[in-house]
Design goal:
This protein has about 140 residues and is an alpha+beta fold. The protein has seven helices and four strands. Bound molecules: adenosine-5'-diphosphate and magnesium ion (MG).
Length: about 140
């Protein structure tokens, strides 16, 4: 296995539910170390840019509205196999399908308000981390 970095976002519903600490603690327990963290209230343009791959999906407008309704916590997570590991800890997109104990099974209220984002590939992880962090805002721990 290789040390990777991936992007995580605690979405507005996670921030509203006051589970920032629980989610970060879980990542640390699972070997996903935060190496960059900031809180940001996305503008419409920033949310549209981040989710540009979903522009043609029917839920795009609602997704942007949801992601801009309050602040989010964006994190670069580092660890062995971090991209896949983060997806495993998050659980399926729809919390009804998410394995017991995953973050989405624990905290998400629906397929849209599903509490966490995680990059889906190493290539997208690098693009997404750069979207939110400059090089000097990320502190690799190796
Ligand atoms: P994931 O976040 O698991 O990678 P996707 O990349 O497919 O899932 O979708 C991005 C986000 O768009 C989801 O996390 C969720 O917030 C929202 N979303 C996905 N599918 C739907 C849907 N059918 N209806 C409403 N929102 C959706
Ligand atoms: Mg995705």
């Amino acid at each position: 296995m290789a040390i990777e970095q991936t992007l995580s976002i605690i979405k507005p519903d996670g921030v509203e539910k006051n589970v920032i600490g629980k989610i970060i603690a879980r990542f640390e327990e699972e070997g996903l170390t935060p190496v960059g963290i900031r809180m940001v209230h996305l503008s419409q343009q920033e949310a549209e840019g981040f989710y540009a791959v979903h522009r043609e999906r029917p839920f795009f407008g609602e997704l942007v509205e949801f992601m801009t309704r309050g602040p989010v916590v964006v994190m670069a997570l580092e660890g062995d196999n971090a991209v896949a590991k983060n997806r495993e800890v998050m659980g399926a997109t729809n919390p009804d399908d998410a394995d017991e104990g995953t973050l989405r099974a624990l905290y998400a209220s629906g397929i849209e308000e599903n509490t966490v984002h995680g990059s889906d590939s190493l290539e997208n992880a690098a693009i997404e981390i750069k979207y939110f962090f400059s090089d000097i805002q990320v502190f690799p721990r190796g």
